[in-house]
Automatic annotation (TrEMBL):
SUPFAM superfamilies per the UniProt record, alphabetical: Translation proteins SH3-like domain (SSF50104)
Single annotated GO MF: structural constituent of ribosome
Record-annotated membrane-spanning stretches: none
Superkingdom of origin organism: Eukaryota
Family label: Belongs to the eukaryotic ribosomal protein eL14 family.
Organism: Linum tenue
Protein keywords: Ribonucleoprotein, Ribosomal protein
InterPro entries referenced in this protein's UniProt entry, alphabetically: Rib_uL2_dom2, Ribosomal_eL14, Translation_prot_SH3-like_sf
GO biological process, one term: ribosomal large subunit biogenesis
Protein name: 60S ribosomal protein L14
Cellular-component GO terms for this entry: cytosolic large ribosomal subunit
């Protein structure tokens, strides 16, 4: 069984530590081997350490460092809606997070 959750642009992740705990974000750029630039509709674009992110199986098709408007359009096209509640995502998408 191979590894399927790679750190890549467009990968949806869950913040597992800090003041934004529980928020879903999208990786928009990889800064170095320890940090990524993440963004979400309801938060300011920021750098986070990979230790503070839990990767999901969900990937959005976006270019590197998109505008906020472009990111929101790509999320709507993929059928994702971000919020405080993780229950907004389809059940099949959430299942790998909690296993």
């Amino acid at each position: 069984m191979g590894f399927k959750r790679y750190v890549e642009i467009g990968r949806v992740a869950l913040i597992n530590y800090g003041k934004d705990y529980g928020k879903l974000v999208v990786i928009v750029d990889v800064v170095d081997q320890n940090r990524a630039l993440v963004d979400a509709p309801d938060m300011v674009r920021s750098q986070l350490n990979f230790k503070r992110l839990t990767l999901t199986d969900i990937k959005i098709d976006i270019n590197r460092v998109p505008r906020k408007k472009t990111l929101i359009e790509a999320m709507e096209k993929a059928g994702l809606c971000f919020g405080r509640s993780k229950c907004i995502l389809p059940f099949d998408a959430l299942l790998p997070i909690f296993l």
